[in-house]
Structure formats: C-alpha cells, structure tokens
Write a structure and sequence with these properties.
Blueprint (H helix, E strand, L loop, with lengths): L1 H27 L2 E8 L32 H10 L3 H32 L2 E12 L4 H12 L5 H16 L5 E12 H16 L4 E5 L2 E2 L14 E10 L11 H12 L6 E9 L9 H7 L4 E2 L1
Parallel strand pairs: 1-4
Antiparallel strand pairs: 1-7, 2-3, 2-6, 3-8, 4-5, 6-7
Helix pairs in contact: 2-3, 4-5, 5-7
Length: 297
Amino acid sequence: MKRFFVRILCLLVLVGILTLSSVSPAWAARTGGRISGGSFRPPTSSYRLPSRSANPSYSYNRGYYGGGGIGFPIVTPFFFGGGGLFSIILLLGVAGFIVQAVQRFQEQRQEQALLNPTVTVAQMQVALLAQARSLQKELNQLAQTSRADTGKGRVELVQGLTLALLRHPEYWSYAYTSLEKVPLNQAEAEFNRLALRVRAQVQQETLVNASVQAPTVTLNHAEPGEYLLVTLLVATTTPVKLPVIQTLTDVKNSLTTLGSIGADDLLALEIIWFPQADGDTLTREELVTANPLLQPL
C-alpha cells in the first residue's frame, strides 16, 4: 500500500513538472532592452604606503639603543642595576613594540583596502503601469545616445534613468531593492548573477546599447501590455543604503540615492527593461510570477 501511494505521488510530481515546463515558455517570449557598461578591474592609485625608515616611531630599533632593539635595554639593567630606570626602559620597549605592531596592522589593512576594496552591488526594480509607455521611448533614446564605456557616460545613464522614473510616480505599481556588499574580486560574479536572472525573462534583446535588432518573436498588436518592468543594477565603491520598499517615498528615496553616485565610484551598470518593442505585452500574472520579490505600492 505504501509503495502504491509513493508511485501515485511521483506520478503527480512528474505531471506537474511537465505542465509547468510546457506553460512557462508561453509568457517568456517577449522583447527587452539592455544598456550595460563598466569593468571590475582593480583601481589604480598613486598612493604608496609610508616608508618605515622615515617614521620616527621606528627609531628605537636602531639609534636610541645602539641597534640592539628592545632586547638590549631590557637586559642591560640586570647587569648594571637598573631599578626604576629598568622599569621605564621596559615600558618604553613594550610601548614601542605595540606601536609598531599596530602600525603594521594598519598598513596591511590599507594595502588590502586599496587592492581589493568593498563593492556594493545594488539592484532596484520598478514596475510601471502600461500607461507609462512614453518611458520606453526615453529608455530607447538613452540607449542610442549615451555611452556606457566611460565613467561620465555611466553617471549620465543612471541619472537619466532615475529622472525618467521620478517623473512618472503616478504609474509606479511594484518595486524592489537589494544590496550585496562583497570584495572587488567577487563583485563581478554577483553582478552577473543578478543581471542574468533578469535577462533570462527575455526571449530576445531587441535593443542593446545602441544596437537595434528587429524582433523575431510574435507580438500582440491588439492591445498594449499591462506593465513595464525596469531594472537598474549598479556596482559602486560608495557605501550605498537603500530602504526596504514599502511606500512611494521609499521608491523616491532609492532612486535619488542611486542617481547621486559619482563617476569615480560607479564601476559598472546594467539597465534592463521589458517589454521593449511596440505591441509586446507583460501582464500582472507574468510580472509577479517571474519576480515574486516585487512589493506592491
């Protein structure tokens, strides 16, 4: 009897998998636009760690005690009767040793921070009602006129996108933010992971930066889509704080924060939106199913 129920359960699971696999491609076939640029190369800096020979705090190792380090002043009083002098010299030696250890630790921290700084990978998604179709034209224009291969160009893109979204608060319907703080040598992998999760929802990217491709997917020209989803991904060395989305004010504050990142700190960006082509659709069910973390506003 137990084996019978196990077989029935396995059969139901198999039917469910086959059903979901046959349904999901139906709503994944849509067009999308993408703007990306930047790199995760270690920052170049002319900063050099201070030379220890030029630091007076290290001189006790060489000049004050005839090159004997802290061992000479500690041992000498045992032979010549140091008394209070021995205690003073001992304290000076211990203090100098502690100062040297702290300075070496600080130098190692500075060197590590320079070579592998902490990077914040921030993601923000805003879903707008389909009445904001004019925003698609602004995104298309940004992709065709802006340059993402320079720091200045990336800043202009982020500012252009955040301003375009801030102009349409009446159409905001869902939103979501996330933050990940990782070392520079892990930032690219985290950035790509988040980007690929969003890009996987698009069958064909019909506009990538300035490259326009004619859509080959079947579009529904009878009625406009219900929603437009815009995703902004940035990698920055600036410690960014984004609120958990609950209200329209949270969306506004998040967009303002991302739009204020400077060119020197913005390592990379990715802007993804869909649908992109005229006539393509995105229903509420499709939006929420593929993006369950979106919060209603």
